[in-house]
Amino acid sequence: MLRLLLLFACVCGCATKQQTFTGGAVAADHSLASQAGVEILRSGGNAVDAAVATSFALSVVRPFSCGLGGGGFMVIDSPTMEPVALNYRETAPSKVNQTFFAQNSSRFGSTAVGIPGTVAGLLAAHERYGKLTRQQVLAPAIELAKSVIPLDTAFENAVESATRAIETVPVEERAAYVGALQSITKQFSHLESGQVFPLQRISENGRAGFYEGDIARLIVRATEGHVTLADLESYEPRWETPLQIAIGDGNTLVCMPPPSSGGVAIAQIIGLLSKVRALEYGKSPEFSQLLVETMKHAFADRAEHMADSAFVDVPVQALLDDAYLDDIASRIVIGETQGLYSYGSVTPPPDDDGTSHFCVVDIDGMMVSATETINTSFGSLVYSPVLGFMLNNEMDDFSSPSGTNVYGLRQSDKNVPEPGKRPLSSMSPTIVAQDGVPVLVLGASGGPRIISSVVQVLLDILWFGDEPTKALERSRVHHQWFPDRVYVEGAYRDHDVEAHLHALGYEVVPRPNIGVVQVIQVEDGVIKPASDPRKGGKPAGIQ
Ligand code: DON
Q1: Which among 31, 127, 316, 414 is least buried, having the fewest CB atoms inside 10 angstroms?
Q2: Looking at the predicted structure, is the pLDDT value of residue 350 above 60?
Q3: Residue of 355, 371, 373, 469 marked active site
Q4: What is the pLDDT of residues 302-341, one digit of tens each?
Q5: What angle do CA 462, 468, 473 make, to 5 degrees?
Q6: Contact, 262 vs 449, CB < 8 A?
Q7: Distance in angstroms (rounded) separating the CA atoms of residues 460 and 467
């Protein structure tokens, strides 16, 4: 309780002092992961080396959020390179087809597991851009895996949330999931993490140390053959061209293309806010209402059009087209909200918390923005103590036969599962470059709230001049088009915004928090990192 009160006092009252560095910084959602990245920067590693070390460390210290059993997206940029994006999202195993989840769970157990991509992704990024050896960048995580990590509030909250989720499963199926939860908690807080073994294998043998041999066989066994050896061996991360979208004042948004919906949605929201001249209302309840309306449009288009563009046509250019945004903007009226089907370009349908984001900046201004996930807290709850990591339940991000997924998101038939297809995602690792030089790096966890929290922190910094720490302490709103309600933060309440939206006829629903954002801004050579107080992370840096 005291911890909660302190956090609340800090978020609502005293502003946290902005830390500054000049030699590089890492903002992760656990201080030990930030420190692991900084250790690598100090040893002469660049931002990618540090990002890889941070991610492997997160696998150990945030096993309920991300890790070897999951996947992610990464955006990399520097003053001297063209930006690149890396898609290492989990992929549907060969056994999954379009009707598979009508009979099988996408939420718990083996059938929920997608082929993990994190290890292949990190090693691909390291191979292409890293300066240090693989052994060097894995060393901090192996060290952490050999130690006892103190349980923190975020871990306890995740256990609580997974325990509540297990209660939705038929009683006779619960024992395995409860056992998995107990086993990982015990290993984490009493013994060394089981991850020493897989991390060492990866350090010694690279990609083959995970996708072939003992570790691969253990994953196949843990998923009762749902993920096969062939699935693992054939997994490849995909290098992509990031979306680059001008957002005014010389700023360019550098972000993920599909199957992330975040890049398009964030660009749509910012484009629409500019078109309705929202900035003229300042940081006011009126601004928040316009923001909510733009979110409704962006999430309506997400529901209708977005999925893995390697499988279906995603009309990215059309969704960002100026004339299209003009048309939508003309439908946004200050002080008014519309019915569900007035948003985006949706056609009415027939009737019918495990992620982590981190940012790295090195002394040369190279930036990495990465969001990684096992989907919900502790993923599928498929766990092998020998492996020490949880396997993801990313298959729930495909369109669900029940109409909505665990985040209440409605998604179209484009996003139905198929072998080798990657599910639509809200993960939105983002970099903002000013005249070609990266100046801001950010991203979030929180399912669909990723998109809305990233856009709000980005605007608080770029439009309202907040320091990163101040931007993270502000109250946020969230609207995902369906269900037709606006979420406000219970713990970080802004009563004026809430009353304003309520008076205008919105259904206003409080939720404890909206997104967990990590951000680093670089201004005149000064590096300003911040980790969201909502998950207790702490940045680190080099003076
Ligand atoms: O990719 C996605 O959109 C989800 N799997 C992200 C899940 C998430 O952020 C859970 N967070 N706390």
Answers
A1: 127
A2: no
A3: 355
A4: 999 999 999 999 999 999 999 999 999 998 988 888 777 7
A5: 110
A6: no
A7: 8
- Locate 100 and state its tokens: 């598979």
| DSSP assignment string, 109-126 | SGGGPPBP-HHHHHHHHH
- CA torsion through residues 426, 429, 433, 436, sign: negative
Using CA positions, which residue lies closest to atom 5 of ligand 1?
Answer: 375
Residue type, 199: L
Decide whether any atom of ligand 1 lies within 6 Å of the 87 Cβ.
no
Contact 54, 34 (CB under 8 A): yes
User: Does 111 participate in catalysis according to the annotation?
Assistant: no
Question: Does the Cβ of 355 fall within 6 Å of ligand 1?
Answer: yes
The number of the ligand 1 atom at minimal distance from the alpha carbon of 448 is: 3
195 Cβ below 6 A of ligand 1: no
User: 């729930």: which residue's tokens?
Assistant: 396
Residue 185 Cβ < 6 Å to ligand 1: no
Question: Which atom of ligand 1 lies at the shortest distance from residue 353's CA?
Answer: 12
- For atom 2 of ligand 1, the residue with the nearest CA is 425
Packing angle, helices 262-275 and 322-329, rounded to 10: 60
**For residue 192, pLDDT beyond 80:** no
Chain-centre distance for alpha carbon 102: 27
**For residue 137, what is the enclosing H or E element?**
helix 134-145
Q: How far is the CA of 375 from the centre of ligand 1 (A)?
A: 5
Place of tokens 């909660």: 4
Q: Residue 400 has which token pair?
A: 């669900």
Q: Is the CB of 373 under 6 A from ligand 1?
A: yes
DSSP annotation of 434: E
pLDDT for 347 equals 60
> Which atom from ligand 1 is nearest to the alpha carbon of 516?
12
Beta partners for 425?
260
pLDDT tens digits, one per residue of 237-278:
999 999 999 999 999 999 999 999 999 999 999 999 999 999
**Could you tell me how far CA 321 lies from the centroid of its own chain?**
26
pLDDT for 485 beyond 70: yes
